[in-house]
Description:
Blueprint: E1 3-8, H1 16-31, E2 36-41, H2 44-53, E3 59-63, H3 80-85, E4 90-93, H4 96-99, H5 105-117, E5 121-126, H6 136-149, E6 161-164, H7 178-196, E7 204-208, H8 216-222, E8 227-230, H9 237-247
Parallel strand pairs: 1-2, 1-8, 2-3, 3-4, 4-5, 5-6, 6-7, 7-8
Helix pairs in contact: 1-2, 1-9, 5-6, 6-7, 7-8
The chain binds 2-phosphoglycolic acid.
Amino acid sequence: MKSLLIANWKMNPLTLHEAQKLLESTVKASNAAREVSVIIAPPALYLIPLRAGYRGKKVAFGVQNAHFENTGSFTGEISMEEARNAGASHAIIGHAERRAMGESNEDTRKKVAAALSLNIVPILCVGEKARGYEGEHLIFIKEQLRAGFSDVAPGKVARVIVAYEPIWAIGAEEAMNPRDMHEMAIFIRKTLVELCSEKAMGVRILYGGSIDEGNAVAMIRQGDVAGLLVGRASARKEKITQLIRAIKEV
Ligand code: PGA
């Protein structure tokens, strides 16, 4: 089965030279894994030089965040259009760490729409801080999905990728249990079909949060996911190589 791997480097590594080395290792591993599609989201500063130095077709590039306005007075931001012009084909939207810095559901709605209008594939991140006994987290996720998809035309629904990342499993010691992810994937699919009709059957659902070479295979096999969004393990050469190797024949 084909798996999608989003390498979210976050604020790593510290130099362009190290970023080039990390790209090299990631490319090498992914060239040997025909069934794995890899999308690298480096710090935006490195996007242009990394893109320019990469001659292959196997790996695609994305940004970790971008503004929904095309241009203007937004100090410190980069726009979706600038990202596209720099070579990004994907954009992570609404990552938990961005939401913690103030990004709202309303922002994600505009960002998903901006990305699609430029032919960038949006990777909409959703996930709850904690789980309650009453299933409040399901209402929370539903709301994040509703906002993110509200401006998506029916014909474009299946272009959006949803990454479920429970905040309690991001940067943690352990990933979520794959069986619980399976249940969540069913819930997300059902919610999307309610919101966007049967077109939502084409949406790819990923899992993110403390994935590494040890738990990736089980998550893909039992979690009912089309792939993984990986933070820490994607920013270390040995780890990402082992991870890609591990999932190449799942
Ligand atoms: P992690 O991060 O793999 O380091 O837990 C995942 C993410 O935040 O996307």
